[in-house]
Amino acid sequence: MNDFDYLLHREVKPGYEFDKLIPKTNCKATFLGKGTTDFSVDEMAVMVKKYYSQMSKVAEHFSNKPLQRTCNEIHKWCYDHFQYKADKAIQYLRSPSCSWLSRFDGIDCKSYSIVASCILTNLGIKHYIRRIKQPGFLPDLWTHVYIVVPKNQKNSKLKEGYYVIDGTVATLQESAYIQNSDLFMDMEHYGLNGAHPGMKGVMDKPLVAGVSLNDIKGLFSGSWNFSCIGGSLNMNHFNQTLANVAMAFDDMFYKANMSVRYGDDALLDNVNALFRISLQIKSHSELKAAGGWKSSCSRAAVNAYKDLGIYYHNIVYNGFQQWLRYYFDISTTTDSVPNNTFDIPISFDVLSDITQVQPLKVIKLTPKANTTEVKQFVVTEYISANHSQESFDLGQFLQGITSVVASFTNNNTGNNNDNPGNNVDPSTGVPYNQGNNVMKAGVGSGIAGFLIFSAGAAILFSEMKDKPAKPKEKTDDEPEPSTETTSKSKK
């Protein structure tokens, strides 16, 4: 154990209650080659953009609280649940799932910052990734990175005060530094330069929850609340399947909404997963129910499974598809897949009753020119009702939705006249002059599309020596300075 590891060592809480909230990963690593500090920080932003949803359920523990308390509790959670261990010659950028898997072995300041940034992103809280040069410790090099959250969330100006989230230390005190460089985690910028050219997405209030599992069961009291036990299948098999399927669709709808909010590259994948899996389960459940079951318990179980398949298929292919086409121009084709390859644990044998299905596949998706806001798609009581699935009225559905996924500051023509290389003042929307050096996360920083990541990956790059740079003098009107120098990060 080196000096840093010894000084920053802590007793880590087991955190078993969070295991079920964080997706599993094998922490597969991808080697990216040599990189500078800017490369490191920019790739941290890419990791947040790609994997923020891994912290969606954990983020719920910090929602609906004052900003200061939220930041303090996120800091404490990170400090308490992840051991510290400095990276050596190989620097690791871990997804939150990978950090959770590695929490007892230890992570360093970059991975702490990714975890905290992902939680803040799910909560819609604006923040910066800050790197610093420290007095008395390799002062010519960038040696530490952490998160700062502006107290003023409207204009994001740090000179009006901010909170610090640094999971490497137990206190809320910011480390002393002689120079800093801040990367603004601008989800609006993701929307502008990500999957939706020309749109300037604005963060809105958190997403609302849909109908509960008990509500869904209650909708089908005639067949779903059966009580018999016996035969090869019974109510227990169905209830377990219902819980897993409902949770999976809830997660898929959440991911689709968040992809719209941030304009990320996973939007098509998330949309197509809904079309594919809902059709697969409908087909598999219908074939299963047609199997000539002798036991009344087994027949009740497979018939309930069939109802479940039809229920989600109608929601996706009626309600969700209308919602999607209302806000977006889409181009589609069809795919051909087996009906049993959905990755949701069920209690009905997926190795039988197999056939090919042809789900709808979206190949292009662009916002309509007149789209100014996108309301959340959520499974409400209206869309759950049987009659609503058969004759779905989008207008009536949208009247019952209050949560906006994203709104936009200009009509969306699909043409992006902004120079993606310019930095934009978050308080005014006006580009900074080239002389100002606040960095912003997004495609404009030259990072998106540069690499292909595996799910839950830990990203590696070779350390590269920093080139000492004379700190730039800042004025009161300028943002915190950012110098284009390289880094040797230790903390």
From TrEMBL:
- Could you identify this protein by its name? Transglutaminase-like domain-containing protein
Transmembrane annotation, as ranges: 441-462
Q: Where is the composition biased (Basic and acidic residues)?
A: 465-475
Comp. bias regions, Low complexity? 411-426, 482-491
Chain spans, region Disordered:
411-430, 465-491
**Which species is this UniProt entry from?**
Flavobacterium beibuense F44-8
Going by the UniProt record, its keywords in alphabetical order are: Membrane, Transmembrane, Transmembrane helix
